[in-house]
């Protein structure tokens, strides 16, 4: 059996706590070593990540580190793709670990299905009470609106997929990743694939384990950015937003307006109480159901707050995106262009 040459590309910045297990999981791959190269595009890390990368490069000839002066994911991805020697590109995220057959399953799925992009579902691996609760919410339809990329058992054609595996020529033909998008650049690329007549496939055999945020503040910033940059994708391609994307923003807008009007209107105050009461009941019910289903009742006290952060963060970000991109037609605010993982030096949650 012949194996096509593969380049694994890894954008990273300040991933000191996670780059070693990530690289170790790739080096432990069952894909033929002589057909594999690994390019890490480092966004000028200042937490010791670069020293670790240089050490790995010196011990493993298959690994190369290149500089990513842009410091954001899409610029790193594009630099690595241009440097790649492989026929097939497999994207890897630094804060994720991968099964030994991950690369092979990606390549097999891409070739066997004829897809333009192939990938797996989001699985999580967490440590500690709070991160484990965030991981549990991550797989709940109440938190993420039933996104298929969070359904680990789904197999079939999808609109988008995490990470990804493509033929290099196809990526070049598509124009690579949009470097204006700090977030949602993978969704936007998959949108272009679908609009050009291509297809995206999700396989349950492609296994990886993502480390979710380990603090509530970094989770809030992450989902605020997701909501914010989703608006930019909608604006760029002039597509209607889906119900799943609109609901959080609509709820946040209604709640804020009712809160502002409540001191002036008894009706607004009553409607605000109804709004918060209905949301609270739905939130708590979803938390109890999610914990009971997973047999993790210990997370009931914290899960409603985590659900609230998912919804409020995404909804507020979406509203701010509407203001910046659609109404005022201005560029992104500084707080939406910075990485959202807190400093590894202070929290253990890597940048």
Describe this protein's structure:
- The chain has 351 residues and is an alpha/beta fold.
- The protein folds into 2 domains: 6-120 and 161-210, Spore Coat Polysaccharide Biosynthesis Protein SpsA, Chain A (Alpha-Beta Complex), CATH 3.90.550; 216-347, no CATH class.
- Helix content is 50%, strand content 12%.
- It contains 13 helices and 10 strands.
- It has helices at residues 19-27, 49-59, 73-83, 102-113, 129-138, 141-144, 168-174, 185-195, 216-237, 243-261, 266-294, 303-327, 344-347; strands at residues 6-12, 36-42, 63-67, 88-91, 96-98, 117-119, 156-158, 165-167, 200-202, 208-210.
- It has a 5-stranded mixed beta sheet with strand order 3-2-1-4-8, sandwiched between helices. A 3-stranded mixed beta sheet has the order 6-9-7. It has a two-stranded antiparallel ribbon with strand order 5-10.
- α9 (216-237) packs parallel to α12, α10 packs across α11 and α11 (266-294) packs across α12.
- The longest helix is centred in the C-terminal third of the chain and has 29 residues, at 266-294.
- It starts with 5 loop residues before the first strand and ends with a helix.
- The relative contact order is 0.14.
**Structural class label:** alpha/beta
Distance between the termini: 40 Å
* Whole-number count of domains: 2
Arrangement of strands in the largest sheet: 3-2-1-4-8
Low-confidence stretches: 342-351
- What coarse outline follows from CA principal-axis ratios? globular
Helix-residue proportion:
40-55%
How confident overall, as mean pLDDT? Answer: 91
Series of secondary-structure elements, N-terminal to C-terminal: EHEHEHEEHEHHEEHHEEHHHHH
Separate helix tally? 13
Report the portion of residues in β strands: 5-15%
The first-level CATH class of the largest domain is given as Alpha Beta
Oligomer: single chain
What's the CATH H-level homologous superfamily of the largest domain? Answer: Spore Coat Polysaccharide Biosynthesis Protein SpsA, Chain A
